[in-house]
């Protein structure tokens, strides 16, 4: 696909600003005439990167005078922000696009847009253009900043508008965005990935690694803190290599120290760390910076060196354990989470035993466990030693059992502990309780009035559940 970069980032922002104003004016006129506001619905699949891209799209749509709806029949614009990491998510997108055909027949003014990682694959774009002709707009992960212009083009044609850049351009700063949570915010510190794990499509869909300038990140976080955000998660596919692409070299540890100095910030988290790049310096920084939370997400993927090599992960179980042990020693009360892939090509029962051994040694507080799913375009797609689906599920259950035993035991041991909790909302699972997160990322529920939402409180754990903690309010903190 052709890359058409005829304007600088500043010109691009200005151009899109004019288009946004124009669409906003049209939406305003429509409201004056009919009392109706145009509405959009956005469905996001996948990781925090996609969630964050959706926040940018929502920010732009709100500036264009659109209102959000969760009811597809009420929407004038429906957007699917897709993920291609797992086959299931892809199939759901195709299914949902198919269902929208009848809706579009009833309401020809409805616009349908598809964006995100799936669109970075040429065969997917071709399939959508051929089989889902009711889709109005297709754009890629590197084209989010140009959304207003693309939407405007889609209004002026019956053909599908397509803009997918093969690779990344300059980082575009200053896009409007609407944050999902009022208290917590994700902040991208870098984009893309250079690691090429053999199972992963991300380097092909999100492009090569590039870091945002430190001053842009700091300015954004200062603005967020001024707006009342207390909890910031720094996002990147591999945050440990932050700064390598910048002219003024700076490490991720240095960035953490800078963020830690921002007045008014309470909690700093980050994800994702790559075990090959995590350093003792970073662990020391976590231990020394008061606002950096005591939680480390360090995806191991498998407990067998043979499999880690086949996955092109570039670390060994021994190096991983060295870092885990150092982190446990340096950071008091540290909680550790990870990712596992079960059923990678060539996996044996012995590899699973190695993974279980590692689980027992680390004693994780939580883990995301995935069944391997073949992704076209990745090296592992072509491997002949794929694992039988039934066997993958048997091994998955076995690993999950071991993980759950430890997680339940660790939660039970928290009985009587007093945890600092940022209260987020009313609990969806525990009737009449409020819910929030501890600094170690535990979900904590307790009884309290709605005025506590947004506050920091101390909660004494009285009733640890399998995967969450229930307690009693001890004190409301003044911060
Ligand atoms: S580090 Fe590996 S798994 Fe993570 S995004 Fe990069 S290629 Fe994918």
TrEMBL record:
Cofactor: binding comment: Binds 2 [4Fe-4S] clusters. One cluster is coordinated with 3 cysteines and an exchangeable S-adenosyl-L-methionine.
PROSITE patterns in the cross-refs: MTTASE_N, MTTASE_RADICAL, RADICAL_SAM, TRAM
UniProt: [4Fe-4S] cluster 1 binding residues: 47, 83, 117
Predominant localisation class: cytoplasm
Cellular component aspect of the GO annotation: cytosol
Compartments it resides in: Cytoplasm
Keywords, in A-Z order: 4Fe-4S, Cytoplasm, Iron, Iron-sulfur, Metal-binding, S-adenosyl-L-methionine, Transferase, tRNA processing
TRAM domain span: 412-475
Binding residue positions for [4Fe-4S] cluster 2: 193, 197, 200
Record-annotated Radical SAM core domain positions: 179-409
Domain MTTase N-terminal residues, every copy: 38-156
Reactions performed catalytically: N(6)-dimethylallyladenosine(37) in tRNA + (sulfur carrier)-SH + AH2 + 2 S-adenosyl-L-methionine = 2-methylsulfanyl-N(6)-dimethylallyladenosine(37) in tRNA + (sulfur carrier)-H + 5'-deoxyadenosine + L-methionine + A + S-adenosyl-L-homocysteine + 2 H(+)
MF GO annotations: 4 iron, 4 sulfur cluster binding; metal ion binding; tRNA-2-methylthio-N(6)-dimethylallyladenosine(37) synthase activity
A Pfam family recorded for this sequence: TRAM
Listed InterPro entries: Elp3/MiaA/NifB-like_rSAM, Methylthiotransferase, Methylthiotransferase_CS, Methylthiotransferase_N, Methylthiotransferase_N_sf, MiaB_methiolase, rSAM, rSAM_horseshoe
Cofactor(s) of this protein: [4Fe-4S] cluster
NCBIfam families, per the entry: miaB-methiolase, MiaB/RimO family radical SAM methylthiotransferase
Function: Catalyzes the methylthiolation of N6-(dimethylallyl)adenosine (i(6)A), leading to the formation of 2-methylthio-N6-(dimethylallyl)adenosine (ms(2)i(6)A) at position 37 in tRNAs that read codons beginning with uridine.
Family, per entry: Belongs to the methylthiotransferase family. MiaB subfamily.
Quaternary context: Monomer.
Identification of the protein by name: tRNA-2-methylthio-N(6)-dimethylallyladenosine synthase
């Amino acid at each position: 696909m052709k890359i058409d970069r005829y304007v600088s980032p500043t010109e691009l922002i200005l151009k899109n600003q004019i288009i946004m104003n124009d669409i906003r004016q049209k939406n305003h006129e429509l409201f004056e005439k009919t009392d109706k506001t145009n509405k959009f619905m956005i469905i996001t699949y996948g990781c925090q990167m996609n969630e964050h891209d959706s926040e940018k799209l929502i920010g732009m749509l709100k500036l264009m005078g659109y209102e959000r709806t969760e009811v597809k029949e009420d929407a004038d614009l429906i957007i699917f922000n897709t993920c291609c990491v797992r086959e299931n998510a892809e199939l759901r997108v195709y299914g949902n696009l198919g269902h929208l055909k009848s809706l579009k027949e009833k309401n020809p003014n409805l616009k349908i847009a598809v964006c995100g990682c799936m669109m970075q694959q040429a065969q997917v774009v071709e399939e959508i253009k051929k089989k889902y002709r009711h889709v109005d707009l297709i754009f890629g992960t590197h084209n989010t900043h140009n959304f207003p212009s693309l939407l405007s083009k889609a209004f002026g044609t019956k053909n599908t508008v397509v803009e997918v850049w093969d690779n990344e351009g300059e980082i575009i700063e200053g896009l409007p965005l609407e944050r999902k949570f009022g208290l917590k915010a994700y902040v991208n510190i870098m984009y893309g990935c250079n690691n090429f794990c053999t199972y992963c499509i991300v380097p092909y869909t999100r492009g090569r690694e590039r870091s945002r300038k430190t001053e842009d990140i700091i300015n954004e976080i200062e603005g967020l803190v001024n707006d009342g955000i207390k909890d910031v998660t720094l996002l990147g596919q591999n945050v440990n290599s932050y700064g390598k692409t910048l002219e003024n070299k700076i490490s991720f540890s240095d960035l953490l120290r800078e963020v830690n100095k921002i007045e008014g910030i309470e909690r700093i988290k980050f994800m994702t760390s790559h075990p090959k790049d995590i350093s003792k310096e970073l662990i020391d920084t976590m231990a020394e910076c008061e606002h950096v939370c005591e939680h480390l997400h360090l995806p191991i993927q498998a407990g067998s060196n043979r499999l880690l090599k086949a996955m092109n992960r570039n670390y060994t179980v021994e190096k991983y354990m060295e870092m885990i042990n150092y982190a446990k020693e340096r950071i008091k009360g540290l909680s550790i989470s990870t990712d596992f892939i079960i059923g990678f090509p060539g996996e044996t029962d012995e590899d699973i035993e190695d993974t279980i051994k590692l689980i027992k040694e680390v004693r994780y507080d939580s883990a995301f466990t995935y069944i391997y799913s073949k992704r076209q375009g990745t090296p592992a797609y072509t491997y002949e030693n794929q694992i039988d689906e039934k066997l993958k599920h048997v091994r998955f259950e076995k690993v999950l059992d071991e993980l759950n035993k430890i997680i339940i035991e660790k939660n039970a041991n928290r009985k009587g502990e007093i945890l600092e909790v940022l209260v987020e909302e009313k609990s969806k699972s525990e009737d009449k309780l409020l819910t929030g997160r501890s600094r170690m990322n535990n979900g904590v529920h307790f009884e309290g009035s709605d005025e506590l939402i947004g506050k920091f409180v101390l909660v004494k754990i009285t009733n640890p559940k399998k995967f969450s903690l229930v307690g009693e309010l001890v004190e409301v903190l003044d911060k």
